[in-house]
Amino acid sequence: MPELTFDMILVMIMIGIAVFLFIVEWVRVDVVAILMMVTLPLLHLVTPSEAFSGLSSNAVVSIIAVIIIGAGLDKTGVVNRLVGPILKVAGNSQSRIVIFISLTVAIISSFMQNIGAAALFLPAVQRISKNLKIPISKLLMPIGFSAILGGTVTLVGSSPLILLNDLMMPFELEPFGLFDVTPVGLALVGAGIVVFVFFGRFILPGGKGEEAGAAEEDRQEQNHIMEELGRPWELATPEDFTHYREPVTVDGIRRRYLVNVVGLVEPPDFKVLGPAPDQEIRSGVEIVVYGQEKDVRRMAEEEGMALKDDLELFKGELADHASGTVEAVVAPRSSLAGKTLNQVDLAERFQVAPLAVYRQGVTYRAELGSMPLRVGDAILLHGTWKRLELLHAEGSLLFTTPLDSDQLRPEKAMFAGIWLAVALVMVIVFKIQLSVCLMTGALGMIITRVLSIDEAYQAVDWRTVFLLGGLIPLGIATEKTGAAAWIAHSVLNAIGTVEPIVLLAVIGVLATVFTLVISNVGATVLLVPLVVNMALAAHTDPRMAALVVGLATSNSFILPTHQVNALYMGPGRYRSVDFMKAGTVVSIVFLVVMIAMLYLFY
Amino acid sequence: MAIITISRGSYSKGREVAEKVAQRLGYDVVSRDVLLEASEHFHIPEVKLVRAIHDAPSILDRFSHGRYCYLAFFQSALADRAAADNLVYHGLAGHLLLKGVPHVLKVRIIADLEARVAAEMERENLTQNQARDILIKDDEERRKWTQNLYGVDPWDASLYDLVIHIHQLSVDDAVDFIAQAAERQCFQTTPDAQQKMDDLALACRVKTALIQDDCVDVAVACEFGNVLVYSKQGHRRTHQLEEKVKPLAAAMPEINHIEVRTGQAIPPEAC
């Protein structure tokens, strides 16, 4: 057993600090990674070049390329095109829809970032739920879990697996191929779907008791936000509206009656959609508003406005062409999280009006401006399509109502497909290093103008890049100082000699626990050097041990800490307890299937 | 056509000024009677209310919500009276309890310490030193009370519209000034001002109703009858509070809309 050195202790302290910061989240996880990147060379635990080697690692370059390829597929509408045929095949049975969409999401997710695949399907799933009257809570969780599970199908499916080969490099173990994990991954996806198809009604929220009653309840829930919001109404102000009174503004009406003025016509020819908050409402104008009936009627009565039975002036325009209402979800890692709507100032910057905010089963309508937003909050926005598109392009909100005029380049779909194929052929047939192949694919897409180089740069998620790049030196330090070997020996001494399969199972549970509390990347970086050492000491295959970590860090279902789960929580109207219920079952099945598959196949 | 609050120390002639102002303008005058009203309305012993609004909070109070609850009852009783308009209130913290209401004329009456000592000696039959000790201690107590509960010093002149020192100026002079000020345009009860007063009274009523329903961790704000109930606790609390708030909305027709907010800063205007 190796001596415990001062350097080892330092490394362990650094690991302790990293884990602590991951859990308390005083700073964002990627900042923790950068902190490690800077502190480790200062403490002489790694050399300066090692400290930044993470940024040029195979893993980081691969992930950049995967994100660009994913963005290319997204931009050309390749994915959207898949949805139509799938729906046709699936028909309108809930189980079949779950099976087909889950499979598609899993396959897409195996070549894209999980969160990207999940976000891509959110609008489609919501549309399906609405059209077929299936409660959204029955669909989203299986599909979200499949997106996570799909990350285990190929070696580029999720960040931990992309990292795996890099982390194994110091041990001079044979690297994994792109599809080496596929049998296990497919089994996991299959198991996940089977669980939901057969036990869905027991573990998904609202699934107990009479199926029909529950569905009815959920359907009401679905319409809830629209009910809270009300429908558009048209009113006219009388000729003496402004006589002897303070000016009435759009904002004033919103504050007083919780009624949102979204359009205004003032003779002779002033017409505005999405008026500014300080827009004054004068005599003899027509306004169109969103609000609950009781509020609108109260306003009409108190302000002496004439309430029309139907929309007249705004009929065509409000219905479709120029403006509309969308539900937008605060995306994970969005710059809006933690800020209030007042600080973001959507009204000023994009001229869209927030009508309501939906959070964990509660709808908020009053004083929206002072609410700090959280990831997963659904905001109902009204504005002209043009303005909404601008907001959409900014990327901090995920629109769950699809914008019809999404700027797609369907004519480039073929190129996108070809370059994905080229990248895959290079990996599979010519066995060239993953990062080189993927970057070739990404470059190909840019050259064939599937997306511009600027769009490619914008698509790259720098937080992920620095999270990966910054944590790699921590892995190096753990290995170089011998800290990993020391901990591994200590643990093995403590538990005594065990069967390889038991060791793998223990590692699987350990990785699952880690990934729930700290990020999946953090868990992988910390655990891989450890378990490889443990496996070596226990005479088990170290590659298997590393693979268990790489796979089990995707086993993040019990808490909504995984980005995909956080994203689906709001639109699915899930609570943490729903994740615990369904997640526990899926997590246990995951571990059992994974160990069984590894035992059978390798 | 206004609400006048008069903040005063003991033996500062504040009561006399208040009563004469009320007489001159034909307003109601209230002070401790508000306490009585509150104690009857909310079924709590008056002595507890008196102690809550008089003594400075002790260490123990930091662990119990007692004082804050009693204060809420008191504020609610005062706000209801003030919403009826044309009121002179004299006593502690009227200007703080009616914060945010535009047509409140905030007056502080102070008097020379020696004159107050003499008055106290005469009334309570004390020696000069005893009387002075009591007065200084009393002033200190009130100061601590305001500082602890509102974070402001009652001797800070910027809290008031008028500070009148009864020394050279007589009580009648003070009454003249106050009556004149009350006539000013800015203290007239406009519909907007009355709306703010009604909103404050409604917020206070919602708060006391919640307190009686064992929700002591809430702050309530109201604008145009749209009520927001804030709690410092996390989101878990939202659903519990929602359940308690729903029946309130049904019971109070003046509530137009009511919402629960957790996990966000409580705005200063909330009571």
Describe the structure.
By secondary structure, chain A is of the alpha+beta class. In chain A, the strands form three sheets. Chain A has a five-stranded antiparallel beta sheet. A five-stranded antiparallel beta sheet of chain A has the order 10-9-11-8-12, sandwiched between helices. In chain A, strands 2-5 form a two-stranded antiparallel sheet. In chain A, helix 2 packs parallel to helix 21, helix 6 runs parallel beside helix 8 and helix 7 packs antiparallel against helix 8. About 3% of the residues of chain A have low confidence. With 271 residues, chain B is α/β, with parallel strands linked by helices. Chain B folds into two domains: 185 residues, Rossmann fold (3-Layer(aba) Sandwich), CATH 3.40.50.300; 58 residues. In chain B, the strands form two sheets. Chain B has a five-stranded parallel beta sheet. In chain B, helix 10 links the parallel strand 7 and strand 8. In chain B, helix 4 packs antiparallel against helix 9. Classes of the chains: A alpha+beta (602), B alpha/beta (271). At the A-B interface, helix 12 of A face helix 10 and strand 8 of B.
Compact overview of the structure:
The complex is a heterodimer of chains A (602) and B (271). Helices cover 61% and strands 9% of the residues of chain A.
Tell me the span between the first and last alpha carbons of chain B.
24 Å
**Overall average residue pLDDT of chain A:** 80
Count of distinct strands of chain A = 12
Q: Please state the structural category of chain A.
A: alpha+beta
What average pLDDT do the residues of chain B reach?
84
CATH class of the domain at 238-304 in chain A: Alpha Beta
Largest sheet of chain A: 5 strands, antiparallel
* Net shape of chain A: elongated
General shape of chain B: globular
Number of helices of chain A: 27
CATH superfamily of the largest domain in chain B: P-loop containing nucleotide triphosphate hydrolases
Provide the CATH superfamily of the domain at 238-304 in chain A: Regulator of K+ conductance, C-terminal domain
Gyration radius of chain A, rounded: 27 Å
Q: Bin the helical content of chain B.
A: 40-55%
Taking the sheet with the most strands of chain B, its summary is: 5 strands, parallel
